[in-house]
Amino acid sequence: MKQKVTNQTRRKVLIGGATVASTPLWLNVANAQADTIKIGFPVPLTGPFSAEAQDQVKAAELAIKEFNDAGGFNGRKAELLVRDDKLNPGEAATRTLELIEKDKVNYVVGSLSAATQLSINAVCKERKILFNSISQSDAINEIKDWSIYTFHEALNPHMTAGALARYAIPRFGKKIVFLTADYAYGHRHSQQLRTQSFYQSVELRSEPVHPQSYEGLMPRGRYIYSSLLFH
Question: In 10 A of CB 30, how many CB atoms?
């Protein structure tokens, strides 16, 4: 009697497994393997960073084309979904949420500003979606903004300014003026330049702060980064 019960149980398990394997759930899993990989790409297509953002889009489109031409990932092709964050943190958060909830992106890449990348990161963390920032920023590397969904592939102001100072100061002189762009990147950049100046015994003549778009320094109000002037 015990043997019959065991055999019946085994038959039920096998039949149950066969039934599960034939349900739409397994079909959905199989179909998911053939779905397009959707990549959200919020960048500031309008505003002072628009020229740089257009370059980012062109580079991303080229990468997508090369990926797809090579066969994709296990036959899955990629699609780039570009959105304009208008260099505004609130707009960036809205567009990111739209990409996740409406467009069902698999992950998000992009941003060109420290402020917008942090708002994009906050939305992605909450929705448990991977975010790969390509903006130069120190802030996103700080523990309060980090999560298991947060990645950052770009340089940051600390690294950039350190490399610039170690190369330029020994070659061009130690009487320097900093031109500091009045936003997060500019101030972080100048902070590291001051640190390098201390270690290299630099004479800091002046440190004027200027807006991002400055007619007196760049024609037609083009964007200007923090810079060094050597005397």
Answer: 9
